[in-house]
TrEMBL record:
CDD domains: Voltage_gated_ClC
InterPro entries: Cl-channel_core (IPR014743), ClC (IPR001807), ClC-type_chloride_channel (IPR050368)
PANTHER family registered for this protein in UniProt: CHLORIDE CHANNEL PROTEIN CLC-E, CHLORIDE TRANSPORTER
Protein name (Swiss-Prot/TrEMBL): Chloride channel protein
Compartment list: Membrane
Entry membrane topology: Multi-pass membrane protein
Highest taxon, organism lineage: Bacteria
UniProt keyword terms in alphabetical order: Membrane, Transmembrane, Transmembrane helix
Any Pfam family hit: Voltage_CLC
Main location: membrane
TM annotation in the entry: 35-56, 68-89, 164-189, 201-220, 240-261, 273-293, 313-333, 340-359, 399-420
Amino acid sequence: MLPNKRTPTNQAQRWKFLQLFGLVRRNPLLISRWVLRWVMVGTVCGLFAGLYWNVLELMTHQLERFESVSLLIVMPIAGLIVGLVIHFLGNPGEIAVIVDNIHFRGGRLDIRKNPAMILASLVSIAGGGSAGPEAPLVQVTGSFGTWVGDRLGLQGEDMRSMSLAAMAAGFTALFGAPLGGAMFALEILHHQHIIEYYEALMPAIVSSCASYLVFALITHLGIAPTWHFPEYNLENMDDFAWAILFGIIGAVAGWIFMTIFRTCDRLWAMLPVPVYIRTTLAGLGLGTLAIFLPLTRYFGHQELESVLNTNFSVVFLLILALGKMASISLTVTGGWRGGFIIPLFFTGACVGKAIAILIPGLNPTLAMICTMSALNAGVTRTPISTTLLLSKLTNFSPFTPILFASLIGFFLAPKVPLIASQLKSQQSIEEIQS
């Protein structure tokens, strides 16, 4: 077992900073070269993300026309294709593998896994799986950062920072929030309230800004808010109390989701079949669920607007939230590829709107966004970036209530995170469990 990365002392950090300051003062062009490298990486990542998104939209447009009983054929076939891609091209891994590589392989992500990740994720997402493109984009762009680092002969923290900068660029392209994307790339690595790889913050921000501009030019996404919530103005101190309450509700929803997810994972472990059989069976389950709850199909980018604009009953919203939790769990544990951040936002919106209907006088916008933030922050352990992302995606300008809810969801989450590699070692997992 590899040892944990030793945290440098304050004296060592100060000495490293003084050395860097003296070097930059003697050679002003040094900082410019680094900035150009980060901008170049972000630009290429933005170009790839734009191409990936356009191909994904084209495939989705062709497959979303299938509805009802036809899904029992289309989605198992999609699952079979996903499984065959993984079987012949290799397992591209998930976000847990990325986190593990950042901790223990010096930030090196394997670029050879990209063909399998790109093909499998495109079919998974376009076929109707409840997983979004954020995880594939982070994997592919992060490995490109590693490739650039190899070409430049980078080692140690410089290599790790380049990979993290590229990961942030890939995440930012989808969400259109450079600061939120940069923070996410650092926060997702840990389950505790720390950001260890602070050296990568500036590279991640610069790379994210470049990626954001390129992706927005290609797709015209990320300029306006993604979801159009009713306007909200923070005028009452009571809203902070409500934000805390919604944070508690979101945390409870997070516990329920992780229980469903781990149950699905254990059930699949009891069925030792080839990966293409597993993904096909998962497709059959997802298709069956989508027949009864059509809004559980896809990752929620467009479906969330239906929750906002349709007068669903409380019972239906809660059933839809549970159905979405099951759909996300079946997608990811069943071998389909993609991320679950946007699907979790969709789930939180359903729960929040149901609570707002149950308690007359509550602001539905505050209820939905705070529950979304608490649920996602508790599951992914990213309270700061979740706040920044949701404030951009929803145009919710007084983001302090979101921060309150995110922190509540974060601190009330289970000790063992869903992404176990955030603990950095199996020994850490055993210590927490004991």
